[in-house]
Amino acid sequence: MASVDIEALESARLAALQRTGLLDSAPEQLFDLITALAAKAVNVPVVLMSLVDAHRQFFKSQSGLPAPWAERRETPLSHSFCQYVSVLGEPLVVEDAREHPLVRENLAIPDIGVIAYAGMPLTTKEGFTLGSLCAIDTKPRHWTASELGILRDFASQIMAEIELRSQVIRLDENMEALRASADSRNERARPIAPRSDGP
């Protein structure tokens, strides 16, 4: 694929991510419940709902992330495995990051302790992957088909919520446009008061 096509696709993906309104937004109970449940369901110390922009990954939700990353709620891409899920639009499953050719130089290994990783894409109906729901272990791990299926189901639940919110945003925008159009028509249709030229 030509580089211009890749750049255009990435630009469209970033625009789709911005439209969600989730970047830099406050934690929310719904997403925090999903990450906490996912951590218990697959028995891992860390689960992240990670949204990947051009320079960083932002954690809309996290369960078990150590300090100072939990407070910052983001890392640069130098510490991101989720960026590869975003680029590929497919799951990334790593049993031992120290031996994996794609991520073995990633700074998340020494700085955060990411050894095993399973990331499921958070992909819109239009095909834009906003980031990843990922499970992290601090030791090598074989991920079972059942565990990956659980993560995939939780990722689908997250995307169902995001898509619902996007529909509400579009409906609000359409209603605003209809109101503006109706106001403009009413203004044009308003009768002009007759001039009074005196007695």
Describe this entry's structure for a reader.
The chain is of the alpha+beta class and about 200 residues long. Helix content is about 45%, strand content about 20%. The chain is built from six helices and six strands; from the N terminus they run ααββαβαβαββα. It has helices at about 5-20, 30-40, 70, 80-90, 110, 145-190; strands spanning about 45-50, 55-65, 75, 90-95, 115-125, 130-135. A six-stranded antiparallel sheet has the order 3-2-1-6-5-4. Strand 1 and strand 2 form a beta hairpin. The protein is elongated, with a radius of gyration of 23 Å. The termini are far apart. The relative contact order is 0.13. The model has no long low-confidence stretch (mean pLDDT about 90).
